[in-house]
């Protein structure tokens, strides 16, 4: 089931980039991120309440909460930079560079989370890196 969710995530992430590129024309990129974030906030809390998970908030430990807050800060900064890049750059170049986060995320998973490095992950990461540079070179 996780593969379906991952594919849906990829589809909506791609759609998000295209819709954002259209939507930020003549709009300050920071304002655009703020509007987008409000929508995400509404949808996220609606799902939490519809699934009855809102009561579980008291069970979140301090460590978990701290890392969720740090993740939120990181996501917010990512969106602010992404929207600015998308506003002034070509979507066909900004999107691949943004998706280079896959390689950075894999490297961080190996270093921080101590996940196993395999030949497959190294080759895949190298291919993504090469593909990113091919796509962004003029």
Strand content: under 5%
Shape: globular
**Main beta sheet strand tally, sense and closure:** none
Enumerate the spans where pLDDT stays under 50 for 5 or more consecutive residues: none
Total number of beta strands = 0
Q: What is the averaged pLDDT score?
A: 94
Query: What is the overall number of helices?
Result: 6
Write down the domain tally.
2
Spatial extent as radius of gyration? 17 Å
Helix content: over 70%
**What's the SSE pattern?**
HHHHHH
Distance between the termini: 39 Å
Structural class, from secondary structure content?
mainly alpha
Please identify the oligomeric state. Answer: single chain
Per-chain topology:
Blueprint: H1 2-23, H2 29-50, H3 62-88, H4 91-99, H5 101-111, H6 119-136
Helix pairs in contact: 2-3, 3-4, 4-6
